[in-house]
Write a structure and sequence with these properties.
The protein is of the alpha/beta class. Helices cover 24% and strands 20% of the residues. The chain contains seven helices and 15 strands. The strands form five sheets. A three-stranded mixed β-sheet has the order 2-1-15, covered by helices on one side. A three-stranded mixed β-sheet has the order 3-4-5, sandwiched between helices. It is globular and about 45 Å long.
Length: 271
C-alpha cells in the first residue's frame, strides 16, 4: 500500500463550544473543556505533519464554534472549489469565511445552488463522488456537483440522525476500498455500496458510535478515533497502518478527525 502526500486545511478550535444543538451529539448543558479541545486538535494536526502531509490553517472567527469542522467548509477537487450553504443558521457565517480562503488561495470558485455541506457529505472514491443526503446536504445539490467536478455522483441516503453527514458513516480508505456502517444507509444505498465496494470493511455500531468512521486515510495510514478499537483491528488485518487520536471533546459537537480536515486537491499554494 502506498501513501499519498496530502494537502489539508484545518481550523484551530479557538472558539469551540457547544452553545446549541443541531445534531444528536450536541448537548448545550454538558460541560466542554475548550483547552482540552485545542490540545486534542493540535495532536491531530501534528499527526498529519508527522505523516508528511501539508497542513494549512484558516483563521477562526469569533462566534463560530463549529468552524473547527473544516470538512464542511467546501469541496475541493482538481483545483476547483465549491463553496457551501449550511442548513442551519448557526453555521451560516462559516460559508463566506471559507469561500474567501479558497478564493485567496487561487482555487477556481463555484457557489452552491442548494444546501451543500462540503466534504462532510461529498467523498471522492476513485472515479466516483459519493454524495450523502437525508439530513443536511440537499439531494438537488448532487447534480451541480457532477457538473462542476465532472465525476459521476452516486447518491447515498442516510437514515440514522446520529450519522447526519456521510463522513460519519463511511470513510474512503483508498481508490478501491471504503469502510462503512451498513445500518446508517437506506436499503437501496446499502445495495449500491455492495456493488461498488464488494470488499468493503464493515464497521460495528459500537465503533460508529465513537465516530470511528470519521477517519482520514492517505492510502496506507488511517487516522481515526482511538476509541474505535475493533475497526482499527479490522483495518490492520487488511494491511493498513492505524493511528488512533483522542478527539473526545470535539465529539461532543459530533466531530472527529475527518470533520476537522478538508482535503485540498491540486490547488495553487495559498498566499
Amino acid at each position: 500500500m502506498d501513501a499519498t502526500s496530502q494537502r489539508l486545511l484545518m481550523c484551530r478550535p479557538t472558539y469551540f463550544a457547544v452553545d446549541y444543538a443541531i445534531n444528536p451529539w450536541m448537548d448545550p448543558t454538558a460541560p466542554v473543556d475548550p483547552a482540552l479541545a485545542i490540545r486534542q486538535w493540535e495532536q491531530l494536526r501534528q499527526t498529519y505533519l508527522d505523516l508528511g502531509h501539508t497542513v494549512e490553517e484558516i483563521t477562526p472567527v469569533p462566534g463560530l464554534p463549529d468552524m473547527v469542522f473544516a470538512a464542511n467548509g467546501g469541496t475541493v477537487i482538481d483545483g476547483k472549489a465549491m463553496a457551501v450553504q449550511f442548513r442551519d443558521p448557526q453555521r451560516a457565517d462559516e460559508a463566506p469565511a471559507y469561500r474567501a480562503w479558497f478564493e485567496d488561495a487561487g482555487f477556481e470558485m463555484y457557489d452552491p445552488k442548494h444546501v451543500n455541506e462540503g466534504e462532510g457529505d461529498v467523498l471522492l472514491a476513485g472515479d466516483h463522488l459519493l454524495a450523502g443526503t437525508g439530513f443536511r446536504t440537499a439531494h438537488a445539490s448532487h447534480a451541480q456537483l457532477q457538473e462542476v467536478f465532472g465525476y459521476p455522483v452516486i447518491t447515498m441516503q442516510l437514515v440514522d440522525p446520529r450519522f447526519y453527514h456521510l463522513d460519519t458513516a463511511l470513510t474512503v480508505l483508498d481508490e478501491r476500498t471504503v469502510a462503512y456502517l451498513p445500518e446508517a444507509f437506506s436499503p437501496g444505498s446499502q445495495a449500491v455500496l455492495r456493488r461498488l465496494f464488494p470488499d468493503a470493511v464493515h464497521a460495528t455500531m459500537a465503533d460508529a458510535e465513537v465516530l470511528g468512521l470519521n477517519a482520514v486515510s492517505d492510502g496506507r495510514h488511517v487516522v481515526l478515533p482511538a476509541q474505535a478499537t475493533d475497526l482499527a483491528a479490522k483495518l490492520r488485518d487488511r494491511g493498513y497502518e492505524t493511528i488512533g487520536v483522542d478527539l473526545s471533546e470535539l465529539r461532543k459537537a459530533g466531530g472527529g478527525p475527518k470533520c476537522c480536515t478538508l482535503r485540498l486537491r491540486q490547488g495553487k499554494a495559498s498566499k
